[in-house]
TrEMBL record:
The species this protein was found in: Alkalihalophilus lindianensis
Name of the featured protein: ABC transporter ATP-binding protein
Subcellular localization, as worded in the UniProt entry: Cell membrane
Domain ABC transporter: 9-256
Homology family: Belongs to the ABC transporter superfamily.
Membrane topology: Peripheral membrane protein
PROSITE patterns in the cross-refs: ABC_TRANSPORTER_2
PANTHER family tied to this protein: ATPASE AAA-TYPE CORE DOMAIN-CONTAINING PROTEIN (PTHR43297:SF14), OLIGOPEPTIDE TRANSPORT ATP-BINDING PROTEIN APPD (PTHR43297)
GO terms of molecular function: ATP binding
Major place of residence: membrane
Top-level taxon: Bacteria
CDD domains reported in the protein's UniProt record: ABC_NikE_OppD_transporters
Keyword entries, A-Z: ATP-binding, Cell inner membrane, Cell membrane, Membrane, Nucleotide-binding, Translocase, Transport
Length: 277
């Protein structure tokens, strides 16, 4: 059906066992992402953004567990699926682009070979077509295709490895992408390039994107809707335009104020600048 969300989290709670009691790390999380939509999840450090992402992907650490709720992805509650079923969603269905790209490639195999193997393991493409696809994606990431393709990860800069990792994920064209602090790990220009590219893929493939960030300016600029998390709960949500116009929760207001640490007159100009982004 057209209007069933791609992803719908209902009343999610994640707890950690401490001796005999359960400590709630996130609770009462309700969140939706439609096809083609880019949704922001914003909040201070430790508010529960990563745990939410890991729960969606089935990558929660052993020390915590989902104690309540459902995560519907394409109308199936993934929480009832086996580990194997959930792993099989990763790559083609769901993908994460994270700030921690170091584990994306095996150190002793050339980037190109790893890209081709990943593309082939998720499709029936021939080696030649997979290689072409890898080249195209590296080009889109503004990387020198030939050199990156023939390099080992340790021969490249951190930023190049991350963009190569993004290129690999993009080659799979997942239906749902989580971007976890993508712009934090990269310098401004590369962060913008990666986000622009994700945006282009979204328009081409109509995938849904959940963008995790603590950068309010990026969230304002990029997202259609926003969820604000604080201390394990969603404290504010709505269309980005509305939150930008009138943040209501104290935490959102404080984030907003931190964008504008200026005297009143300058603050007005600066606020206009933020809104104009
Ligand atoms: N493996 C774990 N075991 C126990 N507690 C955890 C674990 N991972 C996270 N937590 C706790 O859960 C809460 C939410 O953490 P989470 O990593 O989701 O925050 P975050 O919003 O992503 O923060 P950041 O922006 O710093 O990445 C924190 O109190 C954290 O200490």
């Amino acid at each position: 059906m057209m209007n069933v969300p791609l992803l719908e989290i209902h009343n999610l709670e994640i707890t950690r066992k401490i001796q005999k009691s359960e400590l709630s790390l996130i609770k009462g999380i309700n969140l939706k992402v439609a096809r083609g939509e880019i949704v922001g999840l914003i909040g201070e450090s430790g508010s529960g953004k990563s745990l939410t992402a890991k729960a969606i992907l089935g990558l929660l650490p052993e020390s915590v567990k989902v104690s309540e709720g459902s995560i519907m992805f394409k109308e199936t509650n993934v929480l009832t699926q086996s580990k194997k079923q959930r792993y099989s969603l990763l790559g083609k269905q769901m993908a994460i682009i994270s700030q921690d790209y170091r584990g994306s490639f095996t150190p002793y195999i050339k980037i190109g070979k790893q890209m081709v193997e990943t593309i082939q393991s998720h499709s029936s493409l021939s080696k030649k077509v997979a290689k072409q696809k890898a080249f195209d994606m590296l080009g889109h990431m503004d990387l020198p295709e030939e050199r990156i393709y023939n390099s080992y990860p340790f021969q490249l800069s951190g930023g190049q490895v991350q963009r190569a990792a993004v290129a690999t994920i993009m080659a799979l064209q997942p239906s749902f992408i989580i971007c976890d602090e993508v712009t934090t790990a990269l310098d401004v220009i590369n962060g913008e390039k990666v986000m622009n590219y994700i945006d282009m893929i979204r328009r081409m493939t109509n995938c849904g994107v959940l963008m995790i960030t603590h950068d309010l300016t990026q969230a304002f600029k990029r997202t259609d809707r926003l969820y604000v998390m604080s201390q394990g709960e969603i404290v504010e949500e709505g269309p980005t335009k509305e939150i930008r116009r009138l943040p209501t929760h104290a935490y959102t207001k404080s984030l907003y104020a931190s964008l504008l640490p200026l005297p009143d007159k300058q603050r007005e100009t600066s606020a206009r600048r933020v809104v104009d982004l």
